[in-house]
Amino acid sequence: MTFWQGFTQASLWFYSERYSLAELKIELIAVGDELLMGLTLDTNSNFIARSLAKNGFRLAQMRWVADIGQNIHQALSEAWERSDIVLVTGGLGPTHDDLTRPVIAGFFGDRLEPRDDIRNALLRRFEKRGFTPAPGWEVMVDFPTRAIPIPNGHGAAPGIHFSQDNRELFAMPGVPGEMIGMMEDYILPILKKKSTGQYRYRVIKTVGASESQLAMLIGDPGKLLPVSLAFLPSNDNGVTLRLSLYSNTDSGESNSLITAEHLVSKAVEPYIYCKDESTIESVIIERMRKEGLQLALAESCTGGMIAARIVDVPGSSDILNRGFVTYSNEAKCELLGVSVSSIEQFGAVSAEVASAMATGARERSNVDIAISVTGIAGPGGATDTKPVGLTYIAIAGLKGVEVQRHLFAGSREENRKRATFTALSILFDYLKRR
Q1: The whole model's pTM is what?
Q2: Sign of the C-alpha dihedral computed for residues 276, 277, 279 and 285 taken in this order
Q3: For 4-158, where are the E strands, in sequence order?
Q4: Fold of the CATH domain 291-433
């Protein structure tokens, strides 16, 4: 049996076995023209999917729907037919394009009627905020007679909870803060009570190897059964290996996951940077803090992206001394001491200039380690000998300077993100080799 034959058989086994268990089938419908037009990034669906996974569930389906009553109704009909739980976001506000509330009521053969408890709660909220509501706000008082209002601790419009035929529908506002509150405080506790089983996960995060390289190292995934293995590559986070197992009992799954995690970890050990939800920058910060090391950054094409990732981690001030964003040649010379002759002879994007940037940042900051990045992010700026994506990353420490050449292939944003993660990867590897 070849590797891919084993992989296919393992995938088919997991698919059929997964749905033979008493798993809650959950579907998400996100309502809004702005999502379909690309005007708003759908962070709600991302949060819901991650929140469900964190709590032992997963989405079976997810779709976007326009602010058109017929489309919303059709999506509800299809989701209700095949799922145990239907989640809806968007369309609960007071404007003319907020159609979710009346469509849901009609779908269940219900009607909207004003509710005094909702009106009073809204008035108290307006008064507390010193806010005079705009005309039309009372639309949110109309509520399906057979539904349960989901409290909204972060906004105005209540959510909607319909329960029928041992299935549940939960509709939440599209405002992220309001949706998050309802998911965490109301919906997830109900799902946990309904579930007869759950997913359990192990995460292994890697750096320095591609998805295909890791797959070859691990070999036939059939040896991991009943655990499923997923490869999750990312331009700015390496490749995450996710081991998952669904079970409606507590017996055996812990041992199965532990065994699978051990097998995979042993196969890819040189490339692992953590086995939890930590980021590579948080792992770096913790390690540097323990060793009492200080860091300086000299960024050109990344424009401060490395510093931004580091300072996103609480406690980063313990290790980050300063950062230089030296985008121009003049800044490289004035702030980092790069010689004009080096730039004229080798160019700003070169191993020599990257080395001088890292050395200058380290000396001027009086730190243990400095990282520098200089490259051509694109789409312009390339030459015959220096294409778009060419990037040099240098690290300066007690034992001298190391420089790496990389050629990234992507958009301007992708190249900058890859350069940022690669710089962090180089720093992680440097610390591991100390």
Answers
A1: 0.76
A2: negative
A3: 26-31, 59-65, 85-89, 112-114, 142-144, 148-150
A4: Maf protein (3.90.950)
